[in-house]
Predict the 3D structure of the following.
Amino acid sequence: QVQLVESGGGLVQAGGSLRLSCATSGSIFNTMGWFRQAPGKQRELVATFTSGGSTATADSVKGRFTISRDNAKNTVYLQMNSLKPEDTAVYYCNAQNGLRAYWGQGTQVTVSS
């Protein structure tokens, strides 16, 4: 059974930092990353590891957010620094194994001004 379990969201003031974690199990994934969805907006890519092992990061978070992973723990992280109110959203972990995509339950990140 595939599971993606996210943690690390919360409420933070503008300029602060948070680190999200996504622990995976049940499959070997060739891509893992993070998406977010703000109220009234479509879900968008934040950062991801591609199947080739490189990373892709949204322009809106470049220089502030960093994706990393611990292969031994099957866990992917998102370090978020210099947070802005516009980063407020539900953040979702995404993993794909070549057959289908899986999503975590989402974790709320709220940035107050």
The chain has a mean pLDDT of 96.
